[in-house]
Design goal:
alpha/beta, 19% strand, TIM Barrel, 34% helix
């Protein structure tokens, strides 16, 4: 277990991302959703992340139901603020936002202090729990003014009041997260898709700033929408069809991993932990089988020779930290198990 910044909130190196429980792209049955959470628990996962955005509340309801009978002190739960859900009776579905659910609500952007508190209260109601451990400002890309002037101070007050243990921001970009790290006193940032085997934009400024400021980084999107899970010409990358040169690079990484007796998925999961600011990774899963695979891949050793050849062949930049460079690490040690720097 690691802790988020100076907050004392613990996280497991492998976390459960619950977007799929909100019927991301395709439906997931209630039983399958529950089985996925149960499988994660059985695999030792004790960090769970959700948001109102995911299935306009469905993910929170399902995750809360699956965790409600677990000892509350035995797991860490995060949700997000910035989108309020307001009732809508116009019919239709939510596939325009990526979720296969009826459009019973609309999302309203709100990073005001009142909006932050209201969002958290409504999330607790959907979860059926009395508290969450971590709250993130969710995707404030186009709302920076309100997020910094009102949303962040509201989170800071919630932390000071003991309502939440850790506060942060979660985004699919590195630049604004770097600003949050440098200009505020948050504990953690959730960076999706910007620190992976194929995309290391977070390494330029975000990760060095986080390490300097003692802010933890949780990495999401380690498979870059699926390309690093199963590289092929029609695989998605960053929520769109992957460019041919990116597919070719992923296929070369896959072949290299197999030549060294491991898998591309295992390497993708291990990669972020070479940077000392990284506290954990979130993996989105929609079934017990996917959870089992993620846990197995997370525990699959990646030989040092893989990382060394990847650097030598230019598949990974010479200045990019890799797990073989972690002092005192055993090559067969699962990622995230070494003592953080």
């Amino acid at each position: 277990m690691r802790t988020l910044g100076r907050s004392g909130v613990p996280v497991t190196a492998l976390g459960f991302g619950a977007a799929a429980l909100g019927n991301l792209y395709t439906p997931v049955g209630d039983d399958d959703a529950r089985a996925a959470v149960d499988a994660a628990w059985d695999a030792g996962v004790r960090t769970y992340d959700t948001a109102p955005h995911y299935g306009i509340g469905l993910s929170e309801r399902r995750l809360g139901a699956a965790l409600r009978d677990r000892p509350r002190s035995s797991y860490t739960l995060s949700t997000k603020v910035g989108r309020l859900l307001t009732p809508y009776d116009g019919g239709g579905d939510d596939l325009g936002h990526g979720f296969a659910v009826p459009a019973t609500h609309r999302r309203v952007w709100d990073f005001s202090a009142d909006g932050v508190r209201r969002s958290l209260e409504e999330s607790l109601g959907r979860l059926g729990l009395d508290r969450v451990d971590t709250v993130y400002l969710h995707d404030p890309d186009d709302h920076a003014g309100q997020a910094f002037a009102e949303g962040y101070p509201a989170l800071e007050r919630l932390r000071a009041e003991g309502v939440v243990g850790a506060i942060g921001a979660g985004m699919n970009q590195a630049a604004m997260l770097t600003r949050f790290v440098r200009d505020t006193d948050l504990d953690v940032v959730l960076c999706a898709g910007r620190y992976s085997l194929l995309d290391q934009r977070a390494l330029t400024a975000l990760l060095p700033a986080a390490a300097e400021r003692g802010v933890s980084v949780v990495v999401g999107g380690v498979f870059n929408s699926g390309l690093l899970a199963d590289p092929k010409p029609d695989a998605p990358f960053d929520y769109a069809q992957a460019p041919p040169d990116t597919v070719e690079r992923a296929l070369r990484l896959k072949a290299l991993a197999e030549r060294h007796g491991t898998t591309l998925r295992a390497a993708a999961l291990a990669f972020p932990f070479a940077h000392p600011a990284v506290a954990g990774v979130l993996v989105g899963t929609r079934s017990a089988a996917e959870v089992a695979d993620a846990a197995a891949q997370f525990g699959t050793p990646v030989p040092d020779a893989f990382w060394q050849e990847a650097r030598h062949t230019g598949l990974i930049g010479a200045d990019v930290p890799t797990p073989d460079q972690i002092p005192g690490r055993s090559p067969d040690q699962p990622p995230g198990q070494e003592a953080p720097a």
